[in-house]
């Protein structure tokens, strides 16, 4: 049975100079309001032990707009400013529920600029999107169509470090489950091979960052030679950001195609609960682990399985998948990383990764 899900469609767009100026001003105001509200909440919590509500923050924003110092906040749409307060409220809710760290201040240099517009702050007509305070619609590159009849409920505009502008349209869409299949697969994540499947298939690690490492290093060396604050340094910094953006885009595209294929071909997908945050503390492997982006892959598998009626099973991180014989169930004392093949006392010869994937699948099916 089809289910209605909220899905974001992201596109590049090319603003006019006036639109770029308006958006840059909006981004700055959003950051200022978020940081100022966070400062007020922190002060109240630290000095008085009191939690500030969204309603109080919203009232404070109204008061700020009436002051001479912050009167410029009236020049941009009020909706992105209110949304910034809602995001801060969600951040504190997650913090008090122990789901996240204490909210951090937004930095001009490190935080990605963005603004969120709800339905009252934009006009959607005949496939054209016009934001509040703008006279003309955005020049969007429609790289893929929106679902027929879709009406955006929220629009998020952002600009990345490579200077590219993006707009994300949140729509409600009906997604039908895929036809059931009999196949199930266990997945062992690695670095030499990105994934090894219980079927015996090994998926090569594209190593996106390594492929562009020389180009990235060259751009970073050029950046280091430029004078701080100069126009040349700004241009060199943009070149570095573009290399990073290329790496990120290729990695995301590869993972989308891979996870879609796994979900389409298998009714049940079983993976390990990897602690990536702990693993990257190994400085000799941190770069390779980050490039593999296992956490992003898991996230994609989770929501795609939910959309298409598949089952994703996550087994315990301490399960001895590499040391367990998938034939007889004997557990070896040690299996060093340099041992890629081994033979069990029962006579079964194992490829380390294929054996681990088979054990992961068996453990996942047993937990169902």
From TrEMBL:
Keywords: DNA recombination, DNA-binding, Metal-binding, Transposition, Zinc. Residues 171-282 form the Probable transposase IS891/IS1136/IS1341 domain. Residues 1-47 form the Transposase putative helix-turn-helix domain. The keyword Metal-binding applies. The keyword Zinc applies. Residues 294-360 form the Cas12f1-like TNB domain. InterPro entries: Cas12f1-like_TNB, RNA-guided_DNA_endo/Transpos, Transposase, Transposase_put_HTH. In the N-terminal section; belongs to the transposase 2 family. This is Transposase.
